[in-house]
Design goal:
Elements: H1 17-27, H2 31-43, H3 74-86, H4 91-100, H5 103-106, H6 111-140, H7 144-148, H8 151-181
Helix pairs in contact: 3-4, 6-8
Length: 190
């Protein structure tokens, strides 16, 4: 985040930190929010975000990465790190993918396994293309008995293509998200 967009000062709380932190935890807000509200009341002036309409903490440029701090049980943190490593992603990219509902993360398996499945699906789709070409040739020649051999292939064609497109879309979304953040993020864990 651009530090020029934020105004900061340091304050000696003179023994009020514990009370401030307890109040923040009790209300589910940040200590900064409590201090800002107190200053607004004392000064009689509402705080105005420097970046326009929205909250400056939520407004960001495309591709800009910000730090997020989460409080989690140590077992959950370890599980998150293991899952991110298994997915061959940084922890931040893994969490962002889960939030975005990236199918490659919500389904079991490693990213490399999903790519292998997609490669297999591509090969099957290529074979399907050859079968459709052969079917068309037999129908053009009026060879109905030979064309009937491809009947079962045609019955499952819609499902096969939809399954392939779903796998391809999931992986392309994952790759697209990685490329858009490649300039500002760490390399994926391997």
């Amino acid at each position: 985040m651009n530090s020029k967009l934020r105004e900061r000062i340091s304050i000696d709380l003179q023994g009020l930190k514990a009370t401030l932190m307890a109040s923040a935890q009790a209300t589910g807000t940040s200590p900064s929010e409590i201090v800002r509200k107190a200053l607004e009341q004392a000064l009689g002036t509402p705080a105005v975000p420097k970046t326009g309409d929205g909250n400056p903490l939520l407004t960001r440029r495309a591709g800009e990465r910000v730090r997020l701090c989460l409080r989690m049980d140590s077992e959950d943190v370890q599980a998150l790190r293991v899952a991110a490593r298994r997915a061959e992603l940084s922890t931040g990219d893994y969490v962002a993918g889960l939030v975005a509902g990236a199918p490659v993360l919500t389904m079991a398996g490693r990213r490399s396994e999903h790519i292998a499945v997609l490669a297999t699906s591509n090969a099957q789709l290529s074979g399907l293309s050859r079968n459709i070409h052969a079917l068309t040739r037999f129908l053009t020649l009026g060879n109905v008995p030979q064309a009937l051999v491809y009947r079962d292939t045609l019955r499952t064609l819609d499902g096969d293509i939809r399954r392939h497109l779903s796998q391809a879309a999931a992986l392309m979304a994952d790759l697209s998200r990685r490329r858009s953040s490649a300039g500002t993020s760490r390399r994926p864990l391997r």
